[in-house]
Specification:
Elements (H helix, E strand, L loop, with lengths): L2 H27 L5 H24 L3 H29 L5 H23 L9
Helix pairs in contact: 1-2, 2-3, 3-4
Bound molecules: protoporphyrin IX containing FE (2 copies).
């Protein structure tokens, strides 16, 4: 497994661990106010980062790797702003951070689209 995909999988597992912790907290407290923050931490952080990690594990190429690093950094910045931003927004503390996180999430997906669409032919990584 290359460093880029490994970093995606580690980040994914970290986001899911924190997201599950928040889910358990919500269950115990019987307060589901933060459910949208929990949902996006698990989905945008846990699921999408795992998807990116899977893609970068099965493809190679230096061009892809360079743009991929930028894409993954932007995706992580998106998670780290979107989830807390949603938490603040649902508690009426302002929507600024959620907006920043949304735009970063969209940017990372456009970068991923560029990575996927511009690679002429996926090169399978040999065993
Ligand atoms: C320890 C594991 C987890 C616990 C204890 C947990 C707990 C919860 C709780 C209490 C809610 C609020 C439910 C409501 O208000 O109706 C919720 C919502 C949600 N959770 Fe989790 N969760 C866990 C893991 C996950 C994972 C791994 C994902 C996604 C990969 C996920 C996705 C969601 C989503 C999308 C919602 C929003 C559902 C809706 O609003 O209809 N959860 N979770
Ligand atoms: C730019 C990124 C995104 C923005 C701005 C965004 C925004 C929102 C908003 C405003 C809601 C309604 C929340 C509420 O009812 O209180 C929502 C719900 C939801 N979103 Fe997203 N979303 C984004 C990305 C995603 C992605 C990538 C996924 C899945 C991989 C996702 C999964 C969900 C789910 C499952 C719900 C329903 C659960 C809930 O209400 O908490 N979202 N989203």
């Amino acid at each position: 497994m290359n460093t880029l995909s490994r970093s995606c999988w580690i980040a994914s597992a970290l986001y899911l661990t924190i997201g599950m912790g928040l889910g358990i907290y919500m269950g115990i407290a019987q307060d589901h106010t933060l459910a949208p923050a929990h949902a996006h931490l698990n989905l945008v952080g846990g699921v999408l980062l795992a998807l990116f990690g899977a893609y970068y594990a099965i493809t190679s190429g230096s061009g892809i790797r360079r743009l991929g690093v930028i894409q993954v950094v932007v995706a992580n910045l998106a998670v780290l702003t979107l989830a807390p931003g949603i938490a603040l927004a649902v508690q009426g503390e302002g929507e600024g951070l959620a907006i920043v996180g949304s735009l970063l999430a969209l940017s990372s997906m456009l970068l991923f689209l560029t990575v996927v669409a511009t690679q002429p032919r996926p090169v399978p990584v040999s065993a």
